[in-house]
Structure formats: C-alpha cells, structure tokens
C-alpha cells in the first residue's frame, strides 16, 4: 500500500468538528433581525409620507373663468383672477393678473404683466405697455421694444359659452403673428 493511501485513511478518521452557535450569537442575530424588521416597518410609511406628493403626476392647470367675452375690447384691460395651486403638501390661491384684448384678426389673447427684464409689473399706457422700474416697453401684443430681452408671456385662452377662460402660461406667440 502506498503512503498516499495511508494518509487519506488517517485523514478520514479525524472527527468532524461541528460549529455550534453560541447563546450570545443566537441572541445578537435574533435581536438584530427583529430590530431591523421593525425599523424598516417604521421607515417605509415615513418615507412614503414625505415623498408621496412629489411622485404624484402633476395635473394640468385648470381653466379659470375670467370675464365675459363681450367685455373684451381692442384696448387691453386688466383682469384679476385666482388659481388654486398645490405644491407638495402646500395649497394656495394666489391672485394673478392678465391683460386681455383682441389682436388685429379679432382673436382674444391674454398677456401676463410680469416684465421680462427683472420681474416688475407692467401697465398699459395709451399705446404700449410700460414698466415703471427701468423703462421697458412692449407693444399691445407683448413684443419687447426696449430694455426687456423677451416678449411678455401669455396665457392659453379659450372661449366657452360666452366667457373667456385662461389656462397655462407660455412663451408669447401673438407678437410673432
Ligand atoms: S423690471 Fe421692467 S424694466 Fe426692469
């Protein structure tokens, strides 16, 4: 018989050492696992509560009824209206303003009076919009003439059952017509 076979016999006779879990290990695993499970159970609703509004799909802004169509003229007029806003958990109803008039083709359009220079509020003065802060001027359609780098933004407009409704704000299109 070779020496190798002797060695293998001697190895196979060694007792198998079974590693037992100590009481300390058992307690730490059990308590650690239970604690982790409870912590996760508490954290999931808290994280969901904090993040939920951010994950909600944003609703399109509702249309807001502003004025009777028959009251809109060629000369711009200022109309105030409020919009319900939901920003995360915060809800508000800020008052907004639109200058509403008819373009050359008789279509009704609504301008936002926030100056595109530094955000003051413009006013209609006889033939143009003027900004009191640094002298920006705009045409009736909102095209920027001096100081301001861009035309006044305008609201989407729809007419329904004799009333003018305004919706989302967007870049001015009326001044390009
Ligand atoms: S904010 Fe209107 S001109 Fe400066």
TrEMBL record:
Domain of life according to the entry: Bacteria
Keyword entries, A-Z: 2Fe-2S, Disulfide bond, Iron, Iron-sulfur, Membrane, Metal-binding, Transmembrane, Transmembrane helix
Domain Rieske: 86-166
Membrane-crossing residue ranges in chain numbering: 26-51
InterPro entries cross-referenced by the UniProt entry: Rieske_2Fe-2S, Rieske_2Fe-2S_sf, Rieske_Fe-S_prot, TAT_signal
SUPFAM superfamilies: ISP domain
GO molecular function terms listed in the Swiss-Prot or TrEMBL record: 2 iron, 2 sulfur cluster binding; metal ion binding; monooxygenase activity; oxidoreductase activity, acting on paired donors, with incorporation or reduction of molecular oxygen
Keyword Translocase: no
PANTHER family per record: CYTOCHROME B-C1 COMPLEX SUBUNIT RIESKE, MITOCHONDRIAL
Name under which the protein is recorded: Ubiquinol-cytochrome c reductase iron-sulfur subunit
Organism: Paenibacillus aurantius
